[in-house]
Structures are given as C-alpha cells and as structure tokens.
Automatic annotation (TrEMBL):
This is Protein kinase domain-containing protein. InterPro entries: Kinase-like_dom_sf, Pkinase_fungal, Prot_kinase_dom. GO terms for molecular function: ATP binding; protein kinase activity. Residues 1-170 form the Protein kinase domain. It holds the Pfam family Pkinase_fungal.
Length: 332
C-alpha cells in the first residue's frame, strides 16, 4: 500500500501539480485485479493545485486553515494548529512531505487496527497509541505526534502478533522522519544555505523513502555518512592515549630488564678510552630518546582522542544492523 501511495502522491504533485492534503484510512481503497492488490486514493475534497515550489495556489489553502484527519496529520501541521495564536511562530504551508508523513501514521495505525484479535485487546492497543493522537488538547496531541517517530518509543510500541514482523520496516520509516527533522534543525542554525522545504532537504522524496524502506539505503544524521568506530576503541574500553602510554612504559621497562653486557677487559689505550666514553654516554642518549618517545606519544594522544570522539559522535542511533553494510545514504 505504501509504495503504491508514494507513486500516486509523487505523480499527483509533479505531473498534475495537485496536493491531496488528506491521506487517511478512509481515503484509501483497494481492489483485486487478478492476483494483484491495487490501492486507490480517493476523496479530493481538500486537494489543491500547487505552484512550482509545491505551495498551494489558492488563497484559502495557503491560509492557516488546516485540512486532514487529525490522527494522520503530520507533526508540523498539528504543532502549527496548537500555536496558531503565537505571533512568533511562522506559518507552516502544507507540502508534499506532510502527505508522505501521513503515510507513516497510516502504516502504524493499520498495523494496530487491522489484524484480528480479541476486542478487549484491540481496544487497549487503540487507547495506548491511536487514541492519544486524536483526543485531548491540541498541545497534547502535538506532543504525542513528536514522539511518534522516537526510536525508543517505536521499539516498545505494542503491536499485535501478526504485525510484529513489520516492526523493523516501521523503524526504518521512523528513522527517516527523525533524520529529516534533524536536517531541518541544522538548516535553521544556518539559513544562508539553500534548502528545499518541500522535501526537507531531499530527505523525504518518493525514491529516498522507497530505498530506505526496502533496506537498500541506510539513514544517517547530519551531513556525514556512517563512520565505524576504530577496532581498538570498541574492545575493553581502553582509550588510545592509555594504550600508547602503556606501550611506552613497557618499552622503557623492557630496556631496563635487558642485562648489560660487560666489555672484556682491555689494556688502557687511547682506543679503549673512546669505547669507555661511548658506553658511559649511551644510557643518557637512551634516556633522551625515551623522553622524545614520551613526548611523541603525548602528541599522538591528542590526535587519536579527537579521532575517536568524532567516530563515536557519528555512530548511528540504535543498534547496527546488516543493512548498514549496504550503500549508505549520505545526507547532504
């Protein structure tokens, strides 16, 4: 259903310049065509024509009048409704990525409501999830929407046994929405950079969503791709600087433990005096070299520590999966 609706919404926007604006459970029908299930988007009462930027051309559609079914509305639209009287909040235009997000809420709703089960169990699941996103104060509903793609919450979301195999798929969808929000926050800190709000910086397009949901791409956060933590840093927890200092100490101790070889007794000659002088100076040179080695280790400590902190900061939220070995989707 989601893949067909992604194609439908994409073609409506870029071929017909139409935005549906009310993707919900009651507006998607299905029929059997041979052995294939075909889904169809209906009810264009709230649909509007859009310009090249994806914004509604109708004055009423561009106003703060919100359309859609509350349980499936995108977080930004619900938040805008909750703060419509706040003059500091900029108006939010209904864009294509909002309809894509509605598909996410519709997917979670379908996993909870459609599977058969005991009525008491279904009512309990409904009140724990869907009911909270359509009842109560608008601020409470907005807060509930903000948590709808939070990784820990989606991991613990109760699903019917029939829908449990689809949880990894739903987590990939929530990861993508979360990463798109992070992309917007990064842009808000530097608005001088060009940014496509309709697709949230290229994060929420038909092709990107399809690729992520099918496991063909991996979501990363910020403007960098996934960087694995160095193997030394993920072993016993010993830091690089500690390992370097330990190696330097072992080398110094091993130098001390080596027994000194006594030179055979020779007659006092000028040549012998030079040899004795060289042997007397050698320990000092060794100490000097050890001091340089310690300084070098200290400098290396700063470099390696910085590298380790960078690698750990770029780790993907959540556990590493096999899908992360595939082509990484660079958020740029």
């Amino acid at each position: 259903m989601v893949y067909q609706m992604l194609d439908c919404l994409h073609d409506l926007r870029y071929k017909a310049k139409i935005l549906h604006r009310d993707v919900s459970a009651n507006n998607i029908m299905w029929e059997m065509q041979g052995e294939e299930v075909v889904f169809k988007l209906i009810d264009f009462d709230f649909a509007t024509f859009v310009d090249d930027e994806g914004k509604a051309t109708d004055a009423t559609a561009r106003s703060k009048h919100r359309t859609g079914t509350l349980a499936f509305m995108a977080f930004e639209l619900v938040k805008d409704m909750a703060h419509r009287d706040n003059p500091l909040c900029e108006p939010v235009f209904h864009l294509l990525h909002h309809d894509f997000e509605s598909l996410y809420h519709l997917s979670a709703y379908s996993m909870i409501v459609i599977p058969e089960g005991e009525d008491a169990d279904k009512r309990e699941l409904y009140r724990e999830s869907v009911w909270l996103c359509e009842n109560g104060m608008m601020q409470q509903i907005a807060a509930c929407k903000a948590l709808s793609w939070e990784w820990r919450r989606m991991r613990s979301l109760r699903l019917p046994p029939q829908s449990e195999p689809l949880r990894p798929w739903l987590l990939r969808f929530s990861d993508l929405l979360y990463a798109a929000q992070q992309k917007v926050r990064i842009h808000d800190m530097d608005e001088s950079v060009l940014f496509d709000h309709e697709t949230m910086g290229g994060m929420l397009t038909r092709d990107v969503i399809t690729s992520v949901l099918k496991g063909e791409s991996v979501v990363t956060y910020g403007d960098v791709s996934f960087v694995p933590v160095p193997q030394e840093a993920c072993g016993s927890g010993t830091s690089h600087e500690e390992m370097i200092e330990e190696k330097a100490t072992i080398q110094n101790e091993s130098t001390k433990l080596v027994p000194e070889r006594r030179a055979p007794a020779k007659k006092a000659t000028a040549k012998g005096k030079k040899v004795a002088t060289a042997k007397a100076i050698t320990p000092k040179k060794i100490a000097a070299k050890a001091s340089k080695t310690k300084d070098t280790a200290s400098k290396a400590k700063l470099v390696v520590t910085s590298g380790t902190m960078t690698a750990q900061a770029l780790m993907r939220r959540g556990p590493t999966t096999r899908s992360m070995t595939k082509n990484a989707l660079i958020v740029g």
